[in-house]
Amino acid sequence: MASRNGERGITFLEMLATTAILVILAGAVLPLARVAKKRQKEIELRHSLRVIRTAIDRFHDDSKNGRVAGTCVKLGAENYPEELELLVKGCAAVGKIGTKVKYLRRIPVDPMTGTNEWGMRCYQDDPDSTSFCGENVWDVYSKSEGKGLDGTPYKDW
């Protein structure tokens, strides 16, 4: 610090140097924050997909093994739910009057699109199909057109 007649303070040059250092540090932190935010959304997407796919598999196992009422499974649906909402509404449990088996509390939100609208594939569809046959829900995928940090499109997860 420069001193003149007993006055103390910060010079303009010191203030400029400090500001320059702060700008450089902020420039380095912002990209890291964006990557961290995107990574968090990707973790949420993987979790949501896992939750829905596990519910579909549990429904399939229960309907195939006769643990839910046959009225819940449409003929020709290959023991898969007709729609995702059926996993939330539930099905009557066989042998337990008045009891329902529910697979989801609610349909998870797709963190990439911000909605609970998911792309769906039927058992009969090709693995890369983007059109839904409407007969059963065999798989779900994100409707986001974005790509992950690894370069893979979210719809392929």
Give the C-alpha Rg. 27 Å
Biggest pleated sheet: 2 strands, antiparallel
Q: How many β strands by DSSP?
A: 6
Q: Give the strand line-up of the largest sheet.
A: 1-2
As residue ranges, the low-confidence spans are: none
Structural class: mainly alpha
Order of helices and strands: EEHHEEEE
User: Domains counted in the coordinates: how many?
Assistant: 1
Oligomer: single chain
Average pLDDT taken over every residue: 89
- DSSP helix count? 2
Query: Outline, from the CA principal axes?
Result: elongated
What is the CA-CA span between the terminal residues?
58 Å
Secondary structure blueprint with pairings:
Blueprint: E1 3-4, E2 7-8, H1 12-64, H2 85-89, E3 91-92, E4 100-101, E5 119-121, E6 139-141
Antiparallel strand pairs: 1-2, 3-4, 5-6
Concise synopsis of the structure shown:
The protein has helices at residues 12-64, 85-89, and strands at residues 3-4, 7-8, 91-92, 100-101, 119-121, 139-141. By secondary structure, the protein is mainly α.
Any overview of this molecule?
- The chain has one domain.
- The chain has 2 helices and 6 strands.
- It has a two-stranded antiparallel ribbon with strand order 1-2. A two-stranded antiparallel ribbon has the order 3-4.
- It has 157 residues and is mostly helical.
- The longest helix has 53 residues.
Essential attributes:
157 residues, two-stranded antiparallel ribbon, 2 helices, 37% helix, mainly alpha, 6 strands, single chain
